[in-house]
Amino acid sequence: HVRVCVLVFTEEERRVRANDREYNEKFQYASNCIMTSKYNVVTFLPVNLFEQFQEVANTYFLFLLILQLIPQISSLSWFTTIVPLVLVLSITAVKDATDDYFRHKSDNQVNNRQSQVVIHGSLQKEKWMNVRVGDIIKLENNQFVAADLLLLSSSEPHSLCYIETVVCEPPNNKLDRFCGLLYWRECKYPLNNQNMLLRGCVLRNTEYCYGLVIFAGPDTKLMQNCGRTKFKRTSIDRLMNTLVLWIFCFLVCMGMILAVGNAVWESEVGSLFQSFLDWDLPVDNFLFSAFLSFWSYVIILNTVVPISLYVSVEVIRLGHSYFINWDRKMFCTQCSTAAEARTTTLNEELGQVEYIFSDKTGTLTQNIMSFNKCSINGQAYGRLDFLSFNPLADPDFCFYDNALLESVKLGDPHSQEFFRLLSLCHTVMSEEKKEGELVYKAQSPDEGALVTAARNFGFVFRSRTPGTVTVTELGRSVTYTLLAILDFNNIRKRMSVIVRNPEGRIRLYCKGADTLLFERLHPSNHHLMNITTDHLNECAGDGLRTLALAYRDLSEEQWEEWSESHRLADRSTDCREDRLAATYEHIEQDMMLLGATAIEDKLQEGVPETIAILSLANIKIWVLTGDKQETAVNIGYSCKMLTDDMTEVFIISGYTVQSVREELRWADITLVTSVELSLFILLYSISGEFALVINGHSLAHALEADMEGEFVSTACACRAVICCRVTPLQKALVVEVIKKHKKAVTLAIGDGANDVSMIKTAHIGVGISGQEGIQAVLASDYSFSQFRFLQRLLLVHGRWSYLRMCRFLCYFFYKNFAFTMVHFWFGFFCGFSAQTVYDQYFITLYNIVYTSLPVLAMGIFDQDVPEQRSLEYPKLYEPGQLNLLFNKREFFICIAQGIYTSIVLFFVPYAVLSQASQGTGEPLADYQTFAVTTATALVIVVSVQIALDTGYWTAINHFFVWGSLGTFFSIMLAMHSESLFSIFPKQFHFVGSSQSTLVQPLVWLTIALATVICIVPVLAFRFLKLDLKPQLSDTKKRKPAGRGMGGVRGGVGGMSEGRLGMRGGSRRSGYAFAHQEGFGELITSGKNMRLSSLALANFASRHSSSWIDTLRKKKHSTTHPPQSLIMSHDLALRSHFKPFPERRIT
């Protein structure tokens, strides 16, 4: 029986007693049930309606509906508002319910997983949701960890531990830290993160283990890092809310003007009719008549913002989402995964992104390392059939230098010692399910690559115990006694092992950053160190991750003395880590240099090209990673975020507030000085670029309230920003601070559970469906399998979605102002009586039938340039970032055009028909003839206008535009027919009006005249604008592909697959490791637990860097060079880039 007491130093203490649920339930600790859904069956309707009526437009239409139910006010039937309102609310509710259903499904899948819990002395199966704090759980190999557990025992040797009392920290979101003390038999033992198994991890390489639940459900570190689900809305949605308020104010002003007119008319003119036409009850004076008239006109004029606008927006967004889902060019054949738009509300925001925040591992990289080069005893070896020499070789391993293999075969002692070190100095676990079939489980891919290299050269790591390592050396099995592991950490930047071979010789093997390891070499290594340094510089020039190897022989006395000092440091309760570091430093001296390794970190396919193209689109990419600084910087060079052409890469690594502030201010001063100096440089020179690298401990200070502004200003002035060693919550905070200070659209992309918080915080979250599970995908708005698809998502789908939505909104407001304002002008000629110009059925059908489908077709299918041009010319993306296509200015232009059209549509027919007569001599100046003429002219004018606005015609566009015109005439003739009048005489008052009106030639001349007056100024303005001030998209429509300025796609298509990241030796990686501290102690203790490692596919992305450099220089040119330079540059680009055939998709 185990008794545990966990004290939480918050408001109250936490006490946990193992296997005693009755005792633990008194404290009401959180259960292990998680819930990410928003609704349940009971709360869905009220909560969803409450959320929907937070939209200004929905509340506005509800208010209008209430007004229309008052007969003394409304001159329109109530169904003209309630039907579209119910339709909008229903469509949105169904969409929200569907989204929440999948959240419930995901929650149920997780909560119903099975665990083995010790209950009443026996193991019983329990669902995850029923696990409680204090339960003891048995986990088996490859099972997910159900909650945050304190490891009690495992199947590994020497792993049993007994617990009486534990004092630990309260629930928090720090994944890499756990502090506590174990009390047992009046002794204290320190507990750290290595004693914990965190929810969401997977048990590896261990048959079983037992753990005590410390934190459950929402208290677990994983859930503490997830962040809250935020309701995301686009900038266009927010702008539309503002515009609706403005329009409502405009509507009120028009109503007041007409109400005042009604009061004046009733007092001056209407009073003359009182003797034979009295006011309707309850009106008894002209002021009350004006009051009712005001509300009547509010109802009549409400179509300036019809509710069909919101239905159409949802339909368009749904169509855009399907285009993303159906895009075959975003389908990954390797994993059979298609792109998925998991939301329908953010598509146009994809066309306005300014900042991308990306995870590194699994997002930019495949996290696959390959052993490319090495230097042994001053001899460089470069990139063999291994299987003929070594049957245990890995068939996927490639290394192209037979000289090294021959050196090993011939027994060269340096070569053999080199690979012996690689086979012994690591924390890799080995599985051998059948003879010769080895599977390595490495905590970092670097370690896996190095051990695999040793394996292929004949030094095969076979197995380990807490005290031994077994290696097959050139076919002979050798077991070494593992005396100590001197573990890696960020300060040491190296790791060592001390082993005793079967002959009794004790040797220390060390591998680490060359900058630190060279300082600890014996003086006799000076010449060899210089040669090796040259080799390292060459490798660094190829963008490879370098590592130095050394050894030291120890006497038995030296070992015994050091072992005792290490034992005392390990058991110290205060400053334990510092004491251990001092002992490590003492033994790692006077080492003999063996050589160096060079590893290639393989990027995902197309990452450098994607980053380069997105940079040309004025999108800034920040990398937020939990990896160490050297690893992150290496990837920065590999994917061309960092280049040797940069003026400076600022490193912010201070541990105190003051040091971080000083480093940021120095960077800021350097940036300002560079800008000032650039004014004195030659006119056509390109100023240098800067990058910023900041560590997690420094970022914690930089994000404090009094420093975050300074951090944002400095970081945003740099072309590239890399944040390393950051926690999941820090990732979210970085995104939040950019949203706060820059007011820019942000996108976060990642593939793991540690990216969920960042994905939820950004305006747009993208999940990579990779090797780290589906947590990121479940939290995302969009998902696909490769980072390279991001450029297509933004530059094609995002840009088109933004363009289509903006054109849709501009046209929609135009056509509705043109339709509605005719009522306003008519008010001055009908005694301000709130009489409508049109038949009420025309008013009802105008937005639903006559003009809905053409604008929907434009909003779904329209293009300004083909998809290929969108990728060739990333600058086409910038109008969305600058919000140029739909803003307050464009809105006022649209309504001004609509008001102008309404003036023409009212006054031209009024002027012509007022004095006109039929062929029989009868006058044409009657209300119904005027109504039919104006309605027909309106439908024709807006149809011609959308034909002009449509940039890309499909068969659907033609069918909808011309079909809507035909539908209008068909319905109008049917509505005005005698047959319907005979059936419903009180409903259809325009009997025979269209039939008698549309046969008059004068009516058609009037319609034609009104159409010409409305359209000709628009055509003239557009031709002048196209000629005098064309947009980039206008020029690219006419420019042949591959000509003129030159497009990037030709360069991308023709790229060779070469190594990434050409850079000088001065920027050489100091250390290739990407693993964490503590795994050496884990191995020697026998608690051989492993988190799930990434099973990634083999791929190396290679390219020529010249095209990217050319494009970047072109992007950052701030002046116009002479014409001769333009011509020569143009010719160079034409010869460099291959033209692409012009294609369009629908």
From TrEMBL:
Any GO BP: phospholipid translocation
Enzyme nomenclature, EC number: 7.6.2.1
Gene3D superfamilies: Calcium-transporting ATPase, cytoplasmic domain N, Calcium-transporting ATPase, cytoplasmic transduction domain A, HAD superfamily/HAD-like
Molecular-function GO terms, alphabetical: ATP binding; ATP hydrolysis activity; ATPase-coupled intramembrane lipid transporter activity; magnesium ion binding
CDD domains from the UniProt entry: P-type_ATPase_APLT_Dnf-like
Sequence positions that bind ATP: D359, K360, T361, E447, F488, K511, R545, T625, G626, D627, R725, K731, N754, D755
Pfam family, one: PhoLip_ATPase_N
Annotated ranges, domain P-type ATPase N-terminal: 16-82
Record domain P-type ATPase C-terminal: where: 777-1030
Domain of life: Eukaryota
NCBIfam families: ATPase-Plipid, ATPase_P-type
The name this protein goes by in its record: Phospholipid-transporting ATPase
Organism: Esox lucius (Northern pike)
Gene name tied to this protein: ATP8B2
